Description:
With 480 residues, the protein is mainly alpha-helical. It is 63% helix and 5% strand. The chain has 18 helices and five strands. It has a three-stranded antiparallel sheet.
Amino acid sequence: MANNERRFIDIVEPLLRYMPTVPRPKEALSMGSRLLWTFLAVTVYLLMSITPLYGLNTSVPSLFISPTIAAILGISFGTLAQLGITPIVVAGIILEILVFSDMINIDLEDPEDQAKFNALLKLLSIALGLLEAVALVVSGQLVPVNLLGGALIVIQLLIATVIIVLMDDMISKGWGLGSGISLFILVTIVRQMFAEAFSPFIPQGSLIPYGAIPALATSIYYAIGGKLSYLMGILYQVNLPSLTGLIATIALALIVLYLELMEVSIPVAMIQYRGYRFSVPLKLMYVSVLPIIFTAYTVYLIGEGLTLLWSAYNRADTNSLLNWIACAHVGPAGQLLPCPNSLLYYFTVVPRNINAAYIAVHIVMYAVLSVIFAIVWVNLAGLSAEDQAKYIVQGGMQIPGFRASPRVIAKFLDRYVRMLTIVSGLIVGVIAALGDIAGVFGGGIGLILVVEIVIQYYSLALQEQLFEIYPGLKRLIGKE
């Protein structure tokens, strides 16, 4: 099997040599320089997210739009950022599963194999970007003005994918701070949150601004004049910024922040230095991001499938069986309005007319799916009790009172890892669902991602400042 795996790497290696890459800086850059490169990458991505695709027929709306998926994947519809970071994220997940399941024999501790993995990630990302661009045009989700326009859309999206891959490569190789993927997700969600909170623009057919804070100020002005309906109207609005959403955003952000900082400490001791003991922390939010992303994408894909079923076979809503499975209507603005008694209704992220049944099903569905994906991801991504035990033994440590055996330590850790996996999956599932229903800015999943990424960047900034003050510390821990 190993020989076959190596042959696969050998087969694609000639292609890997031609993958575009960004060289590492010749010497470590200062914090100011890295912030400058990070700012440039953000600027380029924001410009891409407002640059419309040439050749796109903008007068034909798409029914396959999920704001939740768009936020967590950095997608800006109808622009050069139409694909966002989807190709990189999907390619990374596929390769991680293949590597950790030993289907591809790559040692990520070996610099040569690590370079091959990064090149393979770029190759797969670009290939997926091309396939997704073609699929969007062929399926009609992006409608070109003509055949040439369709070809131009595919070419533009392919070039945009290459640019995003290179910017992610640049940031991760030390030119910027953190990860390009995390940065682009953060920028997309924060921009959406900012618009929902502060946008002064007045939507067509309305008299109050779109943003919750300007809308509140305007509603108070009308209330002074005796018109209380506007003030009552912005207390809660489905799929629109509201005062409830603003309060829920602040409250849930503080809750997520508190939970993200909670840890379970595992006591360990150094085998070589007897008597030296310390703790290895395991976060309460053990697997907080990927399970909920998988959950959102699963709900989205099922909803897409039901939408396609309705579009192909039940647009007239005349089949009683299909009416129970997929019944919907197209609104005046081209939006899809599922029927409340249809299965499609429950796989729509916060439809316009929510009821108690939808709230209950939405919370339970997100919680259950998030726990399932958390369990699956822990076992695939090297986070299981066996993997943690292996890291402890390889680091020359043991748990006091237990033999320094991976099997023995894994048995001890299993109850902690299993509990943290289930609890973290359950918590993020419930918080994401409640955030969607309460109208949290950026969505429930988006809020969780923003808090986690901000914590990562805060920790990274503190670390970089420490390295600048004590340069020798960087060499001591092997960062150079």
